[in-house]
Amino acid sequence: MPESPRHPATPSPRHAAKLFVAAALARSYARVAWLFRSRSWMIQETVLPVLAVAAFAYSYQAMLDPRSNPEVAAQYTGLVVLGAAMTTFWLNVLWGMGAALYWERDSGNLELFVMSPAPMMGVLTGMALGGMTTTFVRATVIATAGVLLFDVPVNPTSWPLLGLVFFLTLTALYGLGMMFASVFLRWGREAWHLVNLLQEPVYLLTGTNFPVSAIFPKAVAAAATLIPLTAGMDAMRQVLFRTPGIFGVWEEVAALAVLSVIFLFTARWLLARLERRAREEGKLTVRWQ
Amino acid sequence: MDTPAIRTENLTRTYRLPRRRWGKAPAPDAPREFTALAGVTLDVRPGELFGLLGPNGAGKTTLIKILTTLLAPTSGTAEVGGLDVVSQARRIRPFINMVSGGESSGYGILNVRENLWLFARMYGVPTALAHDRIDSMLGVVGLTEKAGSRVSHLSTGQRQKMNFCRGFITDPKVLFLDEPTLGLDVTSARAIRGFVREWMKQDPSRTLLLTTHYMAEADDLCDRLAIIDQGKVLACDTPGNLKKRVQEYPIFELSLAPGSGGWAKLGDLPGVHQSTAVEKPESIEVKVALFEEPAIGAVVQTLATNGARILALKKVEPTLEDVFIELVGHGLADAEETTAKGAPADA
Ligand SMILES: Nc1ncnc2c1ncn2[C@@H]1O[C@H](COP(=O)(O)OP(=O)(O)OP(=O)(O)O)[C@@H](O)[C@H]1O
Ligand SMILES: [Mg+2]
């Protein structure tokens, strides 16, 4: 480093951007490496969800009788497969993002990141990118298995639209994850309970295994779209299976885009604030080092 | 005037203690706060290898955490490279780094090289340069063969050596080492000390702050030392000057053959401050404290004229441990040794 500590230059925006990208890619590397090196994930994280899909798919098929009602049966099964695939992202956001900083602190890495010139948002972005990549692989395995096993028809109204919805859903989800991450950093162990608390009700609200709009009153369904998973899955269902949604696809796309921006900015703000608080309270580092 | 590399003024840090534990009501007289640093004022010059010595819980790590921008001071100021650790933390971070001996950081799923690369990238070190530095650092700590091993497969000491490397790969201007040789084998610790000394010589603008519990290490490495206890700086000087403090008078130890005479009268010699002796079956151990060093000539002459046979004669050099015990009041070794050192004559 050329600059002297006595006259440290304020980094240029270009330098700051480069550091952000470097930090994000480096941190995501550790996650992606895990995908290739951890052998047991395949079974744990793909076979089990596929079994869960099977349970729902068979019960829908039993109720709806595919021979007399092939379209509806396929739709409902498709919905379950989509739900299972998208839920892996939600779990990753909760456990892989929300709990991540807490875990990084206990392992002693958090202080190294905070101490480094890399922006924490860069580190979190890296976790998000890594998490998305590994979860994408997992979700693809689940979706493919589901589609093949249960004969789910895949012909979306528009592939680019499906891609857009998927992309925005992930951005909003991981933005929310970054928000959780900074909150959990401060509340530590209590946050753990919060994760558990969020997990199950969200399955219900987002309609992982059934169409929300068909079951909840409109107001509840509308409120549930604030969880990006709900809006995202609802829009994807409309595009994939042409089912009626809570709102129109484009409205949901707009909602997801707005949520993404709000979540990302809130995450940044929270992170800076809570990092400062944690530094004052001595909670950035573990005590026994 | 040169900007100090590290400067603290009246630095204080208190920790809030939990009021309730497991739902039990707190004891009414339980303290609310714990003072880990109580008004620390220090000045470390650029180019200095500065040591912090102190018993467990003295506040060394707390001080390092504040200087590395990980912990906010409760009051007082701390600056690194002339920049304030609270308001200018972002500008400090690019040129500092820290390694602590007990740290368990790193990603078990990555290998040693990847792990070091990951943390180098957080400082924007280009990948190719990072790999060059990783190679040379792994050579220094003797971990070259482990470059491709998973971090989770390393032994504790190997993991620590890896983290030691991490601190140097970003080429910091101010480096903090918190007990870097903790738990390392003798050869490795020596290699690390040698490297630290060399690294400081390579670039005179580098500054290093080191904590250790090994007195010999502190004596051997540090240009200056601060001895701290209970959050306060008790002394801050060069190792040589610190040692002079505990020994007002030069001390010599003599071993005399059994039956030798003359030793009883040594205390009456004009140049001798004090003399003690212990008779053992195999020898007579005499200890003399002199007003001036040359008085040892008169001591030897008196013994010789009284027919004493001198088996050994050596000057007693005070050690940092003596300084430490004197200042802190208790040694890092067991209590027994402390009393033995405090009263050498009546063994
Ligand atoms: N987060 C914390 N909350 C409450 N007390 C703390 C906290 N961190 C440290 N302390 C207390 O502050 C004091 C100083 O701790 P510190 O870790 O700075 O000591 P140290 O000099 O590094 O000791 P050692 O030689 O054992 O490493 C200790 O008494 C410790 O118990
Ligand atoms: Mg310590």
Please, could you describe this protein's structure?
The complex is a heterodimer of chains A (289) and B (347). Chain A has one domain. Helix content of chain A is 79%, strand content 0%. Chain A has helices spanning 13-37, 41-64, 70-98, 100-106, 109-115, 120-150, 159-206, 212-215, 218-224, 228-241, 249-281. In chain A, helix 3 (70-98) packs antiparallel against helix 10, helix 4 (100-106) packs across helix 7 (159-206) and helix 10 runs antiparallel to helix 11. Chain A is elongated, with a radius of gyration of 21 Å. Chain B is an alpha/beta fold and 347 residues long. Chain B folds into 2 domains: 6-244 and 321-337, P-loop containing nucleotide triphosphate hydrolases (Rossmann fold), CATH 3.40.50.300; 251-316, Alpha-Beta Plaits (2-Layer Sandwich), CATH 3.30.70. Helices cover 32% and strands 26% of the residues of chain B. The longest helix of chain B is centred in the middle third of the chain and has 17 residues, at 186-202. Chains A and B meet through helix 1, helix 5 and helix 11 of A and helix 2, strand 6 and helix 3 of B. Residues 15, 34, 36, 54, 56-62 of chain B line the site of adenosine-5'-triphosphate. Adenosine-5'-triphosphate binds at residues 15, 34, 36, 54, 56-62 of chain B.
What is the arithmetic mean of pLDDT of chain B? 88
- How much of the sequence lies in strands of chain B comes to 25-35%
Radius of gyration of chain B: 25 Å
Shape designation of chain B: globular
Q: What's the order of the H and E elements of chain A?
A: HHHHHHHHHHH
Residues in helix, % of chain B: 25-40%
Note the main sheet of chain A. Answer: none
- Residues in helices of chain A, as a percent range: over 70%
Biggest interface and its residues per chain?
A: A-B, 43 and 49 residues
Q: Outline of chain A, from the CA principal axes?
A: elongated
Topology:
The complex is a heterodimer of chains A (289) and B (347).
Chain A: H1 13-37, H2 41-64, H3 70-98, H4 100-106, H5 109-115, H6 120-150, H7 159-206, H8 212-215, H9 218-224, H10 228-241, H11 249-281
Chain B: E1 6-16, E2 33-44, E3 49-53, H1 60-67, E4 75-80, E5 83-84, H2 89-92, E6 96-100, H3 112-121, H4 127-141, H5 156-169, E7 174-178, H6 186-202, E8 207-211, H7 215-221, E9 224-229, E10 232-237, H8 239-246, E11 251-256, E12 272-279, E13 284-290, H9 296-305, E14 310-316, H10 320-328, H11 335-342
Parallel strand pairs in B: 3-8, 3-9, 6-7, 7-8
Antiparallel strand pairs in B: 1-2, 1-4, 4-5, 9-10, 11-13, 11-14, 12-13
Bound molecules: adenosine-5'-triphosphate and magnesium ion.
